[in-house]
Request: fold
Amino acid sequence: MYKPRKKIFWFAVISRITVLSLQFVFNILCPDHYADAFRSPNDVSERVSLYDNIVTLLFSGLTRWDGQYFIHITKYGYTYENILAFYPLYPMLIRIIAGCIRTIFFSLNINSSIIIAAALMNVMCFVKSAIIFYDLSKAVLKNTNTAYRAAILYCVNPATIFFSAIYSESLFAYLTYYSMLKSIDLDAYVAFPIGLSILTRSNGMVNIGFPIYFQFRKLYNHFVTKNDKLSTLTILKSICSLCNIAIISTVPFILLQIYNYIIFCVPRSNEMFIPQHILDHSTTNNFILQGSGNVEWCHGTLPVAYSHVQNKYWNVGFLKYYAVKQIPNFILALPVLYIMITCIKEYIVEHSKYFCTLGFIERIDGTAKVVKVKKYPAEMLVFVVHGLFMTIFCIFFVHIQVSTRLLCSASPLIYWYCTLTMSCTPCCNDERGYESIENMCSKWKVFLFTQRKYILKDKLILAYFLGYAIVGCFMFSNFLPWT
Reply:
């Protein structure tokens, strides 16, 4: 029999094999849609072997949409201004792994090595993120079986194709859930995974709030439980700890801005640094090259490229996506936004005082009353606040269809809500009963596929998760619009 963590490990692996298989089948069966999207220019001098053609046949469905940007950054670096919207840690890691692959399999060209490296790294990061998510859920929900079922739902989440495609979702989810768990544990080194998450995606900056909140809770609990004044030394230690977290977490972001400024704002000749086919591609598509000296954001008070690039090339901004033609995209994002809003609303109703006071007031003088929680544990508070911020940001600022993959890789609320809502969620907290005996002896059999009776809510949740997972594999692999 398998323990919950081992079962999650194997189901996460099997889910990735399934996604890779689906994208291959759908990519073979249907012709690719010619989308008006960025494509990294091909180097005609690059050798293409039989093995390269096999890699393209098997995994080209993973290279669509933003995957082209990450491939380009991995091969050539930040050559064009519009590429600055994508952060460097993910392509840096791919480049390292691809270099190792080429050393072993020297018959593969650079492009094939990058595709294989990205696929391998995404599988590893996803499996690790599923296990870490189980540990996080167990720490917050205080129920082994509920945590297990939330992790299983995570493995078939609605944005699952993006966790296998050449996107940074798997890496970001792993770093985010790891940062959340270490924040709960008050780990002194939590700033490092947070800093790495910031180097992976821009919304990683929000993760700094987790250790700051738990450090304040530690100070407050010390004051209340000991019922005395905090010593100056204790306060200084806490302040130093918070400063260290803030500094170490943001240093990578600051260094990235300095790097962007140097390569784009300091004029220089590009002929010595950039391949000719990249220069030609910039001329054909009117892309602004690094070192050209005519970059607008370089002259700002704070020369930060990200917001300028998002606004210029993707029209990202407050309410800018609200147009009649975008109604289908709003419908596409509606389920995840509904789940997030419902979860947040229900939590606030159950824990209104706890929420409004950020969990401090009820503990004064040790007179806190035991709250009979209907559905949500009070410990979800900081995750609800985080989810509320991310949901509001998605609704008003980003391209609305991106909400699905953004929230599925950043917030645990969607999985916790669905798990706590489904009728098959167990009430007990016993590892021996997290699955049926037959399922516990199998690597792939889980309650999602063997449960005999489902109420309407269960069916809707499963239809959403599995439906979006399958349709997403079809749409994305054929260059059709998806989340």
Confidence is low (pLDDT under 50) at residues 363-369. Residues 160 and 469 are 6 Å apart (CA to CA). The chain is about 60% helix and 0% strand. Residues 232-265 form the longest helix (34 residues).
